[in-house]
Known about the structure:
23% of the residues lie in helices and 39% in strands. By secondary structure, the chain is of the alpha+beta class. It has one domain: Nuclear Transport Factor 2, Chain: A. The protein has a 6-stranded mixed sheet. Strand 5 and strand 6 (118-130) form a beta hairpin.
Amino acid sequence: MSSTRPPLPPFTRETALEKVRLAEDGWNSRNPQKVALAYTEDTQWRNRAEFVNNRAEAQAFLERKWRKELDYRLIKELWAFSDNRIAVRYAYEWHDDSGNWFRSYGNENWEFNEDGLMARRFACINDLPIEEADRKFHWPQGRRPDEHPGLSDLGL
Length: 156
């Protein structure tokens, strides 16, 4: 049984922006079980050099990710969209268990099924070591507040 995850394709600028913010909010929750539900049962990902081939693998990937990437905070920005595809750029800040901070920059290409579930996700990511004093993402863990600047506003 498949669930529906509005907004649904075909996307308009407004619905693509909404879909991007919903994805950002989900990932900022750092709840792997909840986030995985946004993907099809047979979702396919490429994340860096790792390949994910279904929803269960996606959930396991996210569990590993957020055990490693501590105090994770993410901002996504719409880059382009068409019928059932969205491209985003994003940055997130995190630190490892030794206290080393990073800002990770990336681009993702998303493809959705008719129910609004993401069927394919391709991500390219680069990690930049930063000093804690150079962090730009300052909000309590969870959803980015509406008044917090986005990537373009931060010059990223």
